[in-house]
Specification:
Helix content: 40-55%
CATH architecture of the largest domain: Orthogonal Bundle
Number of strands: 21
Radius of gyration: 30 Å
Largest sheet: 7 strands, mixed
Shape: elongated
CATH superfamily of the largest domain: GroEL-like equatorial domain
Number of domains: 3
Strand content: 15-25%
CATH class of the largest domain: Mainly Alpha
Number of helices: 19
Bound molecules: adenosine-5'-diphosphate, magnesium ion
CATH topology of the largest domain: GROEL, domain 1
Mean pLDDT: 86
Structural class: alpha+beta
Amino acid sequence: MSGGDEAQLLNDTSRIKGKEALFRNIEAADALSEAIKSTLGPKGLDKMLVSDNGSVKITNDGVTVLKNAKIEHPIAKMLIDIAINQENTVQDGTTTSVLLASELLQNAWELYVKGIHPSIIVNGYSLAYNKCNELIEKFAIKITEDNLLESATKTSLSGIGGLKLQDTLTRLTCKAAKGISISQNSGITANPNNVKIISQKGGVATDSYLVEGLVLAKQACSPDMKRNHEEGTILIIDGGIEKRKTTIQSKINFSDPSMISAFRDKELELISKQIENIIQLKPTIVVCREGIDDAAIRLLEKSGITAYRRVERNDFELLSRACSASIVASPMSAKKSDLGIFCESYEENWAGVVHWILKGTKQSGVTLVIRGSSEQLIQEIEISFSDALAVACQIIENGKVLSGGGATQMALSRTLKEWSQEFEGRESLAILAYADALEIIPRTLAINAGLDPIDQILALNAAQASAKSGLSSKLGINIHNSTISNMYDLGVIETIQNHKQCLAGSTSAAISILRIDDVLWAKNDPTIPEGIGEEEDHE
Ligand code: ADP
Ligand code: MG
């Protein structure tokens, strides 16, 4: 870029630099964390979100609040991104990650005004983060018992609906997660995508239930096709069995009426060829993603093959995984080895809608049927179930958990403080600031439960200090009776992935923000916060 271009670019911008830039950015992060602080933990309060068109949503989930808020500030958007990333990778810990990021920035600001350069703070934070990752592995507890799987799943559902709904969702989630777990040489795998979720409007949320098998709101193409099969083979076609469609718009002119029947005969011949190829493979069931021509349906019916058409792509993949079937591109390319095997296939009429239920062999497949009085309620349960299912699958695959209720953050904080003494110089101050920031989680849990945060932090610190090493990192705040308790024994436990991702997301966001010392805003940008460019003293 030439010097002239650069001058022009800077002419078109408002600019804040150095201390002012850092102060403004930290202020934005603080505002965001203040907005969601009160939702943390099982005693967190709900937020009512009212959209432009007046629709109302009540939620206790930090990330839902952030996703729905119309936030323009770029730093606030960065923090929202870490919450969304946390949601996408571990489906829990979203509020925690934003609170931690903001607290890390607040503590960094205090060091900065004392004259410590941001690059020293960044170094100290990176050292503290790496140490925390080591410590997490040390504090992690390997679980094998089923009740702990339930406990961890229930902790991830804390704050959602009433206790009865939490119990129902926990029971269904754990059963579903076990239903889709597969033992392999390399260990157990549990892919949450293998659970199908369907909704049935009506009833109450606690009436939701699991069905063994994959349930699709579909019925066989013809009433004369056999509906119930005890076992058999399945062919899955990623297309249809139809007359060939031209890819460009075309018009065919027939100069002689006999040409029309010749044309139709040719089309039928093509369909027959496709059906012949299918029949010689002898599948019990054929499933197509697109349509099946009436002539083809008649031919399949004659051969005793049951066919389903217009099945959605997601269902396709579930069917293929449950039956170990390959998805073929077209009827002509299907081979015997592409067929999958199922244990049972039948149809049932549920409140006037026919449903096809198929149990695979590799895994029978599991479907959650969500009940609820409104679309909105059903959607909320679906999100909670998906999140809890992901947590349960992480535990089945990894099997390591950490204690909740602020226990792990407090243990990390205390160990970091001791460890910081090994460092001489200013980095040790940054490690201490990182350690202090971790206390925001037990402190906020105490505040949200109506407890005195200072008393609780002092009591927790003293209890962890005097406990034996194996017990210390399990002690947290029992928000139900305001005592310091063994959270592991109480069943308040979380996945190791959740804690690791919280630290990774919040540390990286704090470090990126600390590195910014110049902010250029396009002039006339409506998102420029008020007061930019005005001189202020922020100490
Ligand atoms: P996040 O979005 O960060 O997951 P939540 O609102 O789900 O936020 O709250 C999670 C926090 O609540 C965790 O620190 C967890 O350990 C804590 N928590 C959950 N259940 C309990 C409980 N019964 N007692 C104390 N703390 C709890
Ligand atoms: Mg949570």
